[in-house]
Amino acid sequence: MDRLGKSETYADFISDTIENSGVKLIRLSVKDLKEIYHICKQFNLDFDDSYQYLSALKHGYINNHYNVQTFQRANVQT
Predict the structure, then answer these.
(1) CA pseudo-torsion sign 48, 49, 52, 53
(2) Which residues of 40-50 are buried (b: 16+ CB within 10 A; e: fewer)?
(3) Are 36 and 49 in contact (CB under 8 A)?
(4) Whether 69 contacts 76, CB under 8 Å
(5) CB of 72 closer than 8 Å to CB of 49
(6) What is the pLDDT of residue 55?
(7) How much is the pTM?
C-alpha cells in the first residue's frame, strides 16, 4: 500500500468499517471450528451459514431454540 501511496486510505477504511461502525468482531475457538462440520450435517447448511449460526449461538445472539429452517430459507436465493 505504501508503494501506491494508499496507506492512509487503508487506515481510514479500517476506522470507518470497524472502529467507528459499531461492528463487533467475534471469534470461534478451534474446538468450535471443529463443531461446524456437525452443524452442517445436522441442519443441512453450508459452511458459511454454519459458521454464522455457531458464532451467533456461542456469543448469545440466538439460543438453542432458534429455528434453523427459517434461517436457512431466509438465505436461499431464488
Answers:
(1) negative
(2) beeeebeeebb
(3) no
(4) no
(5) yes
(6) 93
(7) 0.64
For residue 43, give the amino acid letter.
Answer: F
Tracing cell 467475534 back to the chain, one arrives at 26
pLDDT at 1 over 70: no
Question: How many of the other CB atoms lie within 10 Å of CB of 32?
Answer: 15
- Say whether pLDDT at 78 is over 50: no
Question: How far is residue 1's CA from residue 26's CA, in Å, rounded to a whole number?
Answer: 27
pLDDT tens digit string along 4-35?
777 788 889 888 888 888 888 889 999 999 99
Which helix (H) or strand (E) segment is 70 a member of? helix 68-74
